[in-house]
Every structure is written in structure tokens, then in C-alpha cells.
Write a structure and sequence with these properties.
InterPro entries: DUF1499. It comes from Agrobacterium bohemicum. The chain is α+β, with helices and mostly antiparallel strands and 306 residues long. It has two domains: 93 residues; 151 residues, TATA-Binding Protein, CATH 3.30.310. Helices cover 43% and strands 14% of the residues. A hairpin with a 2-residue loop joins strand 5 and strand 6. The protein starts with 10 loop residues before the first helix and ends with a helix.
């Protein structure tokens, strides 16, 4: 009598694959909607955690499927392996975020000047939803920052404030920081002007012929040596720039404040960075501030070399 061996089928492995696909699809849809679309950070975190929860169930079922394959030779090994691959992205993202959450201090606002942090020109506001946080930054928070990031401090540069301001504005633009508010300037416009849509460069250009200029044009005289040089600064020796920036990959929003203080022949630059949402910035606020100051160091070094 011939005995045929019929391999059992692991339903856990079969289900794990579809749950893994669902978890990955949810994460892949939520991430671009947050980075480029209208999805807010609290909603994105909620969907990411939901995706990780589905992926966790898929992972457990995949392990059961592999165990069944090892013990009784049940079919479903390929399904379990594919589920493991699908679960890797959402679970890896949440695991890395959880590692930063426990590794970094619970701060959402950092400043290079912990004793006299620059005040916001316009206090950032956002609907925190289910991510509540303290309304003000306490002295204990600043002490915690000083202990966690002892090297985070303002940078002092040789030169007048107008020279440093030019470099600071250039670096801010290069690092995708859009300036929305300024103080201490006269005649300088922010990068973001509320209520004004971007205009085309050709706006206002008409085909009306320009009148012919007179033949004898008076030559302007040289400015007297004792006349004050033209300036965009109001004379307070302090210039402040406030804007917003987003991380390159995940698009997390951060508010940034740059303060320039002129002292004799040097200018001190301080930076304050705050996460737009949540009570924890995962250590990215300090990274943004340090990256900005490092780039400003390079820009000022290039100006000095020239």
C-alpha cells in the first residue's frame, strides 16, 4: 500500500503575508502625504504606529509559520519570509524612533544660549492633538539641555553685523530655512510674506516703449567721506531672523530663530530651534542648530579667504 504524505498548510503564514502587505501599504501612503501633502505630524505618527502594530501581528504569525515549517514541514515558508520583508520598513522606522526617544533628552526647544535664550518674534503655534507639551520652556529644561549638549553654543565671528548677516541669510537659504519674520532691519523683506502669492518675474513688464533719455545726463557726485554709509540696520546692534525648516526625509517641521549681536568688532550668532509638534524633538533640534552654525563657519571662512 502506497502512503502519500500530504503537507499541511500554515494558515498563520498565509495570513502574515497579507497583514505585512497591509502594514507596508499604510506606511507608504502615510509617509508621502506627510512629507508633501496635508497630513499633520500627529496624524502621521498615529498612522505609523498603527502600521507598526499591524506589522507586529504579521511578524508573530510569520514566526509561527516558520516554526510550523520546521516542525511538521507545513507549507508557508515563502509567505512567512515575504511577511518579514514587508514588516521591516514600518517596524524599523518605529524602532529607530523609539531608540532616539529613549536615548535623547525629552526636549522640544533648544538654544545655543541657555542663560538668555532669544525670544520668538512670533510665537509658533500648532494644534498638538494627542501630543501635548508644556507651554513654556522651564529652567530645568535648559539645565537638561546644557547637560545633554554641552558643546551647543553660539559662535562669534570677526566682522561687523552687516557682513555676518549676509552670510547668515545665505546659509539659511541654502539649508531650506524660509525666513518669515525679521527684527532690527530696515527695508529688508522676509522670504515669506503673508497673504502675498508668489509673483512671476515678468509681472508688470509691458511693451510700452521707453522714452528716449536726454543726451546730457548729469554725473552724480561722489559721496562725502564723512557721510554715513547706507545700511539696512536700525542701529540696535541686534538682528533677529525667524523662519521654519523641514527635515529632508520625513518632513518634520521645526521653527528656527537666528540672533546676531554686534559687540565691538565681533558679532555673536545664537540659534534657537523648536519642534513644531510634540514634546520630544528626538535630538534633531540640536543637530539642526549645529549644522547651521557649522555651515556658517564655512561661509565666513570663505569670506575671510576672499
Amino acid at each position: 500500500m502506497t502512503v502519500r504524505f500530504v503537507r499541511p498548510v500554515s494558515h498563520a503564514a498565509y495570513l502574515s503575508r497579507y497583514l505585512g502587505i497591509a502594514a507596508l501599504a499604510l506606511f507608504v501612503i502615510a509617509a508621502p502625504l506627510h512629507r508633501f501633502g496635508p497630513l499633520t505630524t500627529p496624524d502621521f505618527i498615529s498612522l505609523t504606529l498603527l502600521s507598526a502594530a499591524i506589522a507586529t501581528v504579521s511578524l508573530l504569525l510569520a514566526i509561527i509559520g516558520l516554526q510550523r515549517l520546521w516542525s511538521v514541514g507545513a507549507r508557508g515558508g515563502v509567505w512567512s519570509l515575504s511577511a518579514l520583508l514587508f514588516c521591516a520598513v514600518p517596524l524599523g522606522t518605529v524602532a529607530f524612533g523609539a531608540f532616539l526617544y529613549w536615548q535623547k533628552p525629552q526636549l522640544y526647544d533648544v538654544s545655543t544660549d541657555v542663560a538668555d535664550a532669544p525670544s520668538w518674534l512670533s510665537i509658533p503655534t500648532a494644534n498638538q492633538q494627542w501630543l501635548p507639551r508644556p507651554a513654556v520652556v522651564s529652567k530645568a529644561d535648559r539645565d537638561l539641555q546644557a547637560a545633554a549638549y554641552p558643546s551647543l553654543a553660539g559662535h562669534r565671528y570677526e566682522g561687523a553685523i552687516d557682513r555676518v548677516y549676509t552670510a547668515a541669510r545665505k546659509v539659511a537659504t541654502a539649508q531650506r530655512t524660509r525666513i518669515a519674520h525679521t527684527q532690527g532691519l530696515i527695508g529688508s523683506l522676509p522670504d515669506i510674506q503673508p497673504g502675498m502669492p508668489p509673483q512671476d518675474q515678468t509681472e508688470g513688464v509691458t511693451d510700452t516703449p521707453i522714452e528716449e533719455l536726454p543726451a546730457n545726463v548729469p554725473v552724480p557726485l561722489a559721496r562725502p567721506a564723512d557721510a554715513p554709509a547706507p545700511t539696512f540696520f536700525d542701529g540696535s546692534s541686534i538682528v533677529m531672523l525667524q523662519g521654519e525648516t523641514r527635515t529632508l526625509i520625513w518632513g518634520l517641521r521645526y521653527d528656527i530663530l537666528i540672533r546676531l549681536r554686534e559687540d565691538a568688532e565681533t558679532t555673536l550668532v545664537d540659534v534657537r530651534v523648536a519642534s513644531r509638534f510634540g514634546p520630544h524633538d528626538l535630538g534633531m533640534g540640536a543637530e539642526i542648530a549645529e549644522a547651521y552654525l557649522d555651515a556658517l563657519d564655512a561661509e565666513m571662512q570663505g569670506l575671510n579667504d576672499n
